[in-house]
Amino acid sequence: GQNIDQPTEMTATEGAIVQINCTYQTSGFNGLFWYQQHAGEAPTFLSYNVLDGLEEKGRFSSFLSRSKGYSYLLLKELQMKDSASYLCAVREGNTNAGKSTFGDGTTLTVKP
Amino acid sequence: EAQVTQNPRYLITVTGKKLTVTCSQNMNHEYMSWYRQDPGLGLRQIYYSMNVEVTDKGDVPEGYKVSRKEKRNFPLILESPSPNQTSLYFCASSYRDQETQYFGPGTRLLVL
């Protein structure tokens, strides 16, 4: 199975940079996803890592180290609309292919 | 428009009264999954399906059933709902299990 840890809450200032960390323990790994979820809404996809390294998409970047069981999501030039919950999710592989485990989410508050 | 739809969006029911929440996707996705989300907790996977007639248990399958008779539909069945199944339910789909999931709008269920 999987165990995923991420901070419960973070606060940052508009225009700043924030890094949200995620650590995981897995019996089989088939990719790590980051999703954004605004209150009362469905999660939406932000990024995907399956190999080690940094993936950049505009203001958002995500990093993965499989050997350390570690990922982070980097948000640059923060905007008020970035206030949301950020979910780290790991897809299992091998005999558990298809199983997804989500962390409890990090609630980010962006202040003026 | 490519989308995942769920019905109903809101439901209040009583203990023991069987109910079905429908999920449909129009993207020809092979993989579909059901999650529940409770306050302070992340998304927890209930069941998933890798393709037609192939379903597997997630982390919290007790009290739920699913079926995948056709590719586009993946209904969630609660044979005898109980108050601890009060939750926000999300259906999701992806082209294959390794890829980005697209989430439906969610179904808020209250079991009295």
Explain how this protein is built:
The complex is a heterodimer of chains A (112) and B (112). Chain A is mainly β and 112 residues long. Chain A has strands at residues 2-5, 9-13, 18-26, 32-37, 44-49, 53-57, 60-65, 70-75, 84-91, 100-102, 106-111. In chain A, strands 2, 4, 5, 9, 10 and 11 form a six-stranded mixed beta sheet that branches. A five-stranded antiparallel beta sheet of chain A has the order 1-3-8-7-6, with no helix packed on it. Chain B has strands at 4-7, 10-13, 19-25, 31-37, 43-51, 54-57, 65-66, 76-78, 87-94, 102-103, 107-111. Chain B is mainly beta and 112 residues long. Chain B is 0% helix and 49% strand. The termini of chain B are far apart. In chain B, the strands form two sheets. In chain B, strands 2, 4, 5, 6, 9, 10 and 11 form a seven-stranded mixed beta sheet that branches. Chain B has a four-stranded antiparallel beta sheet with strand order 1-3-8-7, with no helix packed on it. Classes of the chains: A mainly beta (112), B mainly beta (112). The interface between A and B is medium-sized, with 24 and 25 residues.
The total strand number of chain B stands at 11
> How far apart are the termini of chain A?
40 Å
Task: List the chains of the largest interface with their residue counts.
Answer: A-B, 24 and 25 residues
Query: What can be said about the biggest beta sheet of chain A?
Result: 6 strands, mixed
Question: How much of the sequence of chain B is in beta strands?
Answer: over 45%
Broad structural category of chain A: mainly beta
Give the helix tally of chain B: 0
Short description:
The complex is a heterodimer of chains A (112) and B (112). Chain A is an all-beta fold and 112 residues long.
